[in-house]
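Lecture 7, part B: from sequences to assemblies.

Below are the input chains for today's worked example.
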Amino acid sequence: MNPSATGDWWRSSPFAIVFFAGNIVRTAGRALIQGALLPLIATVPLVRDNPGIIGALPLVFGAVLLLPLVAAIVQWACFRFRIAEDRLLIRHGVFKKTALDLPYERVQGINARRSLVDRLFGLVTVTLDTSGSVQTEGRLPSIGMEVADRLQRRVTALRPGLGGLAAGGGSSAGTARGRGLGATRDGRMLLKLGPADMVRIGLANRNFIFVAALIGVLGDLLRPGDLLDPILAAVEAGLDSAASAFTGLGTLAQLALAAMVTASIAGVALLLTVTSAFLRHHDFTLRYDGGRFRSRAGLLTQREVLVEAPKIQQLTVSQGLVLRGFRRYRLRALPAAALLSPDAVPAGVEVPDVLDVPLLGGRLAEHLRTLVFAGKAKGVSVLPRCRSFKRVSPWYIRALAVRYCLVVAPVFGLLLFLAWARVPVHTSTILWWWAGSIPIMVLAAWQRWRRQGYAYDRDGLASRSGFLGSEVKAFLMRKVQSVTVKQSPLQRRKDLATLHVQLACGIITTPYLEHSAACALRDYILYRVESSRRRWH
Amino acid sequence: MVAEERGPATPAPPGLEAPGNFVNPEIPLDALPGAETVDWMPLHPRFARRLQVGAFLRSVAYAAAAGGLHITVLVRNPGTFTASPPWLPAFLWTLLGTFCAWSVIWPLIAVTRRGYVVRENDLLYKSGVLWRSVKAFPFNRVQHTKLDSTPLDRRFDLAGLSVFPAGGGRGNRIRGLGRETAERLRAYISERIESGAETAEQSRPAAESVSAEAAPVAMPTPAADAADHAEPAANGGQ
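Predicted structure of the full complex, as structure tokens:
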């Protein structure tokens, strides 16, 4: 309200130019993909008809490379920020000037990112999350470590309830330079991931199969046969002496070869996903001190996320098939305004980092839950296999199966129409396929139903869902924003209902409860919300 | 099962007494009115007519566009679609006519299914003919409200009220309130938001703590906490 006179307007380090240039290039690249590519292609005939123009091409390329740099320098020159007592002020913009005023009490979390350049020169890119929007708002690219530390101390000094961390952090400012933002504030180490865990994360990566398939397709396109033939010849020549023993096993050798190719494709895919896991999560540490979580990870670009436990709206614990084999889980702690599904983010919007623990054991997950929920909601487990989860009504299977069948019906209908129009012989085959698909749909629906579940106690509610893996979303009832009870015609006939609970970070759905249970839950959640004197966060 | 859990809350044990200025009257859970038993307020009686007029205007626009297409394609250039079956235009016109007629009739059915209730602590809104839903917005979670009205709405003296919760999102809109009702409702909700914020302020200690979360007095909702301590076994096996 009264910006203190102590803070001056700062400019970030010149290395921020890299950051701005990166942003510009990214935006330009997106624009190119989204439609500016056509004019570019249109220049091709122009170049073909006037060969003399080729001499000017280096100039054009130079301009293309130089323009973002110049624009970035101008942007950097126009970027100023000021760390006042109670708020952060940012002014930026070249033609359209923007002034951002961010009170510290609105800050949901502090994220720090240190790219390789940043780390070489002792700089850090700090982002302050607010609950206002999904987009990152207060971002200070490439500022000095001591400035970042001062900012963090200012923000945390306004939280007296979260322990005497601000006092402890003050003395460590000088030594914090070495590792990362506030590295010397030890707090309690909750988790540290090593190289073996990176391999696990790489294996559990959902993209693993996808990458493997991609490599397979690429390998096929590159005609591996031509490549393999010399190898085969070499193998044959090398094993010439032993060949007499293998002559009868031609098919077996072929099978072995196929297995080898598959294994090598899987190996390359694994290498890629494990590398990405190393890049993202190398040396992952999670600490807890005085009511806040701090995670740091990254091989080249180091990311640090700092979240206060009370600001966390929802805990999401997921376990895919591979993670299930490892008996490990993945946990995400969503603050307000974090989007649940990354698909819903419009292109070009940068979403702030959330607290994401890629691999942790069940006991630690439960411990984190008690820390986040401040000991409340003891009866709500975040582990998918916990017995406290109640199943939803079996009618859910029927509803899902009907829905799946409706989805595939147009496909088969179209096939049938084509068959009827052209080759009437195959109609029966298609009908058989259609009939055969129905049990599969029912099985899929049954599996979804098995994964669906909910658990609650006086303070919290958890909803479980999934198909092969499973995912639990848990939250405190008093953080709810609104509640909806919905009934489809089928549900009305069977006296069932679906409960939608809106939190500040998204909507959580529990389908096919008994109608009375859904209403009672709704009324109880409303009671918890309305009798809460605390504000929503 | 839930009913068991909603047993009466026991008073706070000695250790958990609230400070003097903190008042949190206990709400007996069974006295909470269920959302099903409330008297639903219907939307404004003119709202169905307004929707019908809107649908009619839209139908006229569709029909004009389809007519223009019909004339350009079939009357001016009769040779364009020689391969298409002769019944196709009639079929498409029937489809359009059914759609338009249905969209004019539908508001008569749909509007009667909508309704709202203003309770002491929340706002309920029900809607849906086949897929029915009841939404509840607690006042102490509403961030801001908005009134809006299109020209057609103003002609019928109607307005829509949007309620925005925290965390962004598009908000939740209640259409078809009388303009005066909507204005009064908005004022009431704003008042409730402010008074809620005030009690939150009062419940903080005198010290200048900024975050309500961090303030020690804001911590207990004593009745609920006490209930937890009194019946630890109640949550088991749920």
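Note for the exam: Chain A touches chain B through 64 residues (CB under 8 Å). Keep this in mind when comparing with the next example.
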